[in-house]
Design a protein that fits this description.
Blueprint (H helix, E strand, L loop, with lengths): L2 H23 L9 H16 L19 H21 L1 H9 L2
Helix pairs in contact: 1-2, 1-3, 3-4
Bound molecules: zinc ion.
C-alpha cells in the first residue's frame, strides 16, 4: 500500500475512534469533537505524519517506538479501548480493514 495512503487511512481510523469516544463519553454532537478531543486528534495526526515506522508498522497504538507523550498516550489508549470494539458495530468496514492490516 502507498505510504501516503496508509497515513491517510490511519488518520481516518483515529478520527473515527476519537469522534465515537467523544460522542459517547463527552456527549458532543455527532461528527463534532470537544476541545480536548480535537487536540488529541491534532496530536495523533502529527504523530502519524512524522512517524518514521509508517512503512513497517500497522498502527500507532501497536508501535514499539513510543512517540506519544505519556499524557497523550493515556488518552489515546482510552479512546482505543473504548472505540476499538465498538467500531465493529458502527463502522465494520473500517474495523475489518484495521484488523486485516495488523
Ligand atoms: Zn471529547
Amino acid at each position: 500500500m502507498d505510504i501516503t495512503e496508509k497515513r491517510e487511512k490511519e488518520k481516518q481510523t483515529v478520527q473515527f475512534m476519537i469522534a465515537l469516544y467523544c460522542y459517547k463519553k463527552h456527549h458532543t454532537k455527532k461528527g463534532e469533537l470537544c476541545e480536548e478531543c480535537e487536540k488529541l486528534y491534532a496530536y495523533a495526526c502529527k504523530r502519524i505524519e512524522h512517524c518514521p515506522h509508517m512503512e513497517t508498522k500497522t498502527f500507532c497504538s501497536k508501535c514499539k517506538t513510543h512517540c506519544y507523550a505519556p499524557e497523550m498516550k493515556e488518552k489515546i489508549r482510552d479512546v482505543m479501548k473504548f472505540s476499538g470494539p465498538r467500531m465493529l458495530l458502527y463502522n465494520p468496514v473500517l474495523a475489518m480493514k484495521h484488523m486485516i492490516s495488523q
